[in-house]
Design a protein that fits this description.
2 domains, about 210 residues, alpha/beta, Rossmann fold, six-stranded parallel beta sheet, UDP N-Acetylglucosamine Acyltransferase, domain 1
């Protein structure tokens, strides 16, 4: 089966990690990236930065898929805006799953989600559109993750957890089983969550002892 072209939207550090996953997944040929004006003409991991958001429509070819490779730490809004705008234009957002992740065949995914190296996703998980399931994260059985979420490196979501849209779960955090995390939440690095979180809850990262 012939490979399809893909353009990556974002040319920073997260894009470099996505490139590695896409190359090893093997279904797509990376045409290039969309970045900031100062990045145009440079390369990221050997691939050219072709233009900016303003030039994207002109750069897209009929057979191009797109993937949003802007990170989501402080805010998901740039990722959400791009996803909604390009969905309205009829763009195709593939699901990218690292061959070095374990994903149950009983998992469902929305468009534009990427699963990074070492992630584990168990039976019955339901993951929405435009999500990042980052390296070595654990998504246990029957977890629901809504659209535009980032489950960061080595985070643990135990069985039956539900995560509302646009939420960030920080590195090495742990969510107890059957907890509901609302929309637009930020769970900081290293935190352990034992009770439900209302929409827009912000829990700062756990501070290191000195």
């Amino acid at each position: 089966m012939s490979k399809r072209n893909i353009i990556l939207l974002g040319a920073g550090g997260h894009a470099r990690s996505c490139i590695d996953v896409i190359e090893q997944e093997g279904s797509y040929i990376i045409r290039g990236l969309i970045g900031l004006p100062r990045e145009v003409g440079t390369e990221v991991s050997g691939y050219p930065v072709l233009g900016t958001d303003e030039e994207l429509t002109a750069l897209l070819q009929v057979d191009d898929a797109v993937l949003i490779t802007i990170g989501h730490i402080k805010s998901p809004e740039a990722r959400v805006h791009l996803f909604e705008t390009l969905t309205d234009k009829g763009c195709t957002f593939p699901i990218i799953i690292s061959p070095h992740a374990y994903v149950s065949s009983r998992t469902t995914f929305g468009a534009g989600t990427i699963v990074m190296h070492g992630a584990v996703i168990n039976a019955g998980a339901d993951i929405g559109n435009n999500c990042i399931i980052n390296s070595h994260s654990l998504v246990e059985h029957d977890v629901i993750i809504k659209d535009h979420c980032h489950i960061s490196t080595s985070a643990v979501l135990n069985g039956g957890v539900e995560v509302g849209e646009r939420t960030f779960i920080g590195s090495c955090s742990c969510i107890r089983e059957s907890i509901n995390i609302g929309k637009g939440c930020l769970i900081g690095m290293g935190q352990t969550v034992f009770s439900d979180c209302a929409d827009n809850t912000k829990i700062p990262q756990l501070m290191a002892m000195t």
